[in-house]
Design brief:
7-stranded parallel beta sheet; Rossmann fold; alpha/beta; 6-stranded mixed beta sheet; 10 helices; single chain
């Protein structure tokens, strides 16, 4: 029997949505049926034109009412993240209209850390529309949950788990980097809260998902942010003078006192400019560094690249220049679509590793 493609709508054709459009167009498993634009400049344009490929016959629109009339299996929601959950109401509206929704925004296992009022609204919207909600991506989801926690499957005991993400922003636009504090004196950059809030939304999802998967109860969760000055002048992507911020570290730690004084779980985001700003003990090219102290202990480094056989830094998809990590952010959402479509209405929890360390292995089998 001929398999029908999943009918997909992309909600926000920016960088992440553009990558999604490209992947949909080039996959037999999916069919693009709609694109929600947020700007007049993209309204009325063919989705192919937006990403720099041949026309695909799907016109982007800012008319939400019209878009919600389109029959589709799932919406991939890639609206711009401002760190304030300003997307809540639109997500609720889409779900209530009867559309399944997946997103790389920081909603993974929202029921574990968001306020009860929002979670109740989320469930109600799914019930009203008979729809399914799922959030995933490279982080949270793939690396800190399925891969990192899966590594504990080889540990008889675990004392601490730490994941470092090292994002070199050297190719980023100077404007956003300056906006969050790069190139400013550390004491001045600390007063800019937007990057702290955006990072905390993701790290909160990661830390509380780990709490669920590992079967522990944190005694406390501590959030911290460090602004590290550059030891020498950095000239790309703009002049960052020595003594001003060349790395921003966002950290969240979950403590379980009965296991030890050090945090059981730590996630660190290191946003940096150039190899001179890598955290101590990290080598160039190590995008993720995972360290598990236990019996036995282990360490894993992981990098995403265009090819293991070249130094190419970007994929060229249409007229988009795409870092491998951005592609790896949207792909887990797309891989989840068949499961979302097949699920019962409601919140689809994270795809956790099947076997792993837990504080009490008797909790690994539902009673």
């Amino acid at each position: 029997m001929m398999k029908k493609p999943y009918r997909i709508m992309v909600w926000g054709p920016g960088r992440m949505g553009g990558i999604c459009i490209w992947e949909i167009v080039h996959s037999a498993a999916f069919e693009l049926v709609g694109v929600r634009a947020y700007s007049d400049s993209k309204n009325g344009k063919d989705a192919g034109e937006i990403i720099g490929i041949e026309p695909v016959g799907v016109i982007a629109s800012t008319d939400v009412d019209q878009l919600l009339e389109i029959d589709c299996d799932c919406v991939v929601y890639t609206a711009h993240d401002e760190g304030t959950y300003h997307t809540d109401d639109e997500i609720l509206r889409i779900l209530a209209s009867g559309k399944n929704l997946v997103t790389p925004l920081p909603y993974q296992n929202a029921h574990l850390f968001r306020e009860a009022e929002f979670v109740n609204k989320l469930r109600a919207a799914c019930n009203k529309g008979g729809s399914v909600f799922y959030a995933g991506g490279i982080d949270p989801d793939l690396i800190p949950n399925r891969i990192l926690l899966g590594l504990t499957g080889g540990c008889a005991d675990v004392k601490s788990i730490r994941l470092q993400e090292n994002w070199d922003c050297s190719e980023a636009d100077p404007g956003p980097l300056k906006y969050i504090g790069f190139g400013l004196p550390p004491e001045e950059a600390e007063g800019i809260k937007v990057s702290q809030t955006m990072a905390a939304n993701f790290t909160r999802a990661i830390v509380h998902t780990a709490e669920k998967v590992l079967g522990v109860k944190y005694d406390r969760v501590i959030e911290s942010h460090d602004y590290i000055p550059a030891p020498v002048d950095i000239h790309e992507p703009f002049l960052i003078k020595a003594g001003t911020v060349g790395r921003i570290t966002h950290r969240m730690e979950g403590f379980v006192d009965r296991i030890g004084e050090t945090p059981l779980f730590t996630i660190e985001y290191h946003w940096l400019v150039g190899d001179t700003m890598l955290p101590e003990g990290t080598e160039p090219g190590q995008y993720y560094v995972a360290t598990i102290e236990g019996r036995p202990s282990l360490k894993m480094t992981l990098d995403y690249s265009v090819s293991n056989n070249s130094d190419e830094r970007f994929f060229h998809l249409g007229d988009m220049k795409v870092e491998p990590s951005y592609l790896a952010t949207i792909v887990p959402c797309m891989q989840a679509i068949p499961h979302v479509v097949a699920a019962e209405p409601g919140l689809l929890p994270s795809f956790d590793p099947s076997l792993h360390w837990m504080q009490d292995l008797r909790d690994s089998v539902p009673q």
